[in-house]
Amino acid sequence: MVRRQMETAVLISLAAVLYWLGYAVQGWLFQFTEHVSGVNWFYLPAGLRVVLVLVAGLNGALGIFAATIVINLLHMGDMNGTVLLLTAGASGFGAWFALLLMRWRGQIDAGLTVLTSSVLIQYALIYALFNAVFHQLVWWTLQRDGASFMVDVWPMFVGDLLGALFFLYALKVLLTLKS
Known about the structure:
Layout: H1 2-29, E1 34-36, E2 39-40, H2 44-56, H3 58-75, H4 81-104, H5 117-141, H6 149-178
Antiparallel strand pairs: 1-2
Helix pairs in contact: 1-2, 1-3, 2-3, 2-4, 2-6, 3-4, 4-5, 5-6
């Protein structure tokens, strides 16, 4: 029981640190892709979201959620309270809900043994759609400063899709090399 709790804590912590590092790399290398604060035409951490959730499941989502709270507190001065928590929820759980849908449809198994190109593209598309819509609905509904649902949802969708595809195909290549 204690060992299981320790493993869970390590997975959540590792996911949080990796996601935060991905956010830092995004700022260093891809700041020029920012459309507006929090919305990028290429978002590298989106790839970390899908990979961390594929590998660590709910623990990966919880780590992303925790890291997003810290990132938003440090870098998004206009976010607090409900907007902060719901934005972190969208960041952490969009990929997890997409994974649940793919598993429910029988397209991704727990062992990740059938990761075809078609499945990866579908997962990336569903994730990018969920993430962009969840974020923009939160920001539009709770009236985040400057939020414009119909304008900002598209660059966020594209950025999340490109970041997710980048990491998913990197994972696929690594798994292919391993076997």
